[in-house]
Design a protein that fits this description.
291 residues, alpha/beta, OB fold (Dihydrolipoamide Acetyltransferase, E2P), 2 domains, 7 helices, 13 strands, binds zinc ion
Length: 291
């Protein structure tokens, strides 16, 4: 029998029937706030689950955590589109990378879950945001989880790079998937926010009736965005003319990248996932527009 790459799952079952909820951290090995935030709650979770089953898997990629790196061989959060899954199914397991083998193990947990919250953080300082699909069921949870920014998948613009994450796979298999990007991965001060979001998620899914009373207050306003455009780099030496970070506000026709002529923003919106290295004719940044 081959040894499991995933750590043992913590499973907490409530006294009453209810949803199957899965919490994940450490899909990327160097995103420690989610790992620390989730493991810090583990001693309390068992006593609070009243309905259904809560499964906690952390850290998902133990080898990458040990190596203090995002992944060893392939990005574990880019293997989940139908195309990637078909490719994995067509490849002999002996040829799979470490993360592809992990994905095979994780797949059954994702397919069995009704709700999945996957905890991530960003490589650069960023405001916290939630990423999920744009349906009423997703919105009902996303707007109440306690972050002031939500980015939805655009149902009319299915980009491979934005549709191959774990939350996408959960949605393909009948569940509701959510990715929390809690802020900069080197900022441990985000941990209380992560833990508050976990409690609210458990409460919103009906898993626990008794969230602790020290939850962070809900933000007064929630900004919601849909990725709608992509901007290509005119050259590999392109120099940004705006703060090159997600959620930098931009206006239609505003110059974004130096050049002759400069690259202009197609619409009013915000930058989303801008690249730090440019290749001429390839993606420089997505643009998201407010809902
Ligand atoms: Zn991540």
């Amino acid at each position: 029998m081959t040894q499991s790459l995933l750590p043992p799952a913590h499973v907490f079952t409530g006294a009453h029937p209810g949803p199957r909820v899965l919490l994940l951290a450490g899909v990327h090995g160097d995103e420690t706030p989610g790992i620390d935030g989730l493991s810090g709650l583990l001693p309390q979770l068992g006593a609070t689950v009243t309905h259904g089953t809560l499964t906690v898997i952390t850290p998902v990629n133990r080898a990458a955590v040990a190596a203090q790196t995002r992944f060893l061989e392939s990005d574990l959060n880019r293997l989940w589109s139908a195309e990637q899954q078909a490719r994995l199914a067509d490849t002999p397991p002996s040829q799979h990378t470490h993360e592809e083998a992990l994905a095979r193990e994780l797949s059954a947990h994702l397919q069995a879950a009704d709700f999945v919250l996957d905890l991530h953080s960003t490589g650069q300082p960023s405001r916290p945001f939630l990423y999920c699909e744009h349906t009423p069921a997703h919105r009902a949870i996303a707007t109440q989880i306690g972050v002031s920014t939500i980015v939805y998948g655009n149902p009319d613009w299915r980009l491979p790079s934005l549709t191959s994450s774990i939350d996408n796979f959960v949605d393909q298999h009948g569940g509701l998937g959510f990715t929390l990007e809690s802020g900069w991965k080197s900022d441990p001060s985000t941990i209380p926010l992560i833990q508050s979001c976990i409690w609210r998620f458990l409460s919103l899914t009906g898993t626990t009736q008794t969230p602790p009373n020290h939850l962070r207050p809900l933000p007064e306003t929630v900004e919601q965005f849909l990725p709608t455009h992509e901007v290509q780099a005119p050259s590999s030496e392109a120099i940004p003319l705006v703060e090159w970070a997600s959620f930098t506000p931009i206006e239609a026709k505003q110059p974004l990248l130096r050049g002759s002529p400069p690259t202009l923003s197609p619409v009013n919106g915000v930058l989303l996932f801008p690249k730090s290295n440019f290749t001429a004719g390839h993606l420089a940044t997505y643009i998201a527009t407010p809902l």
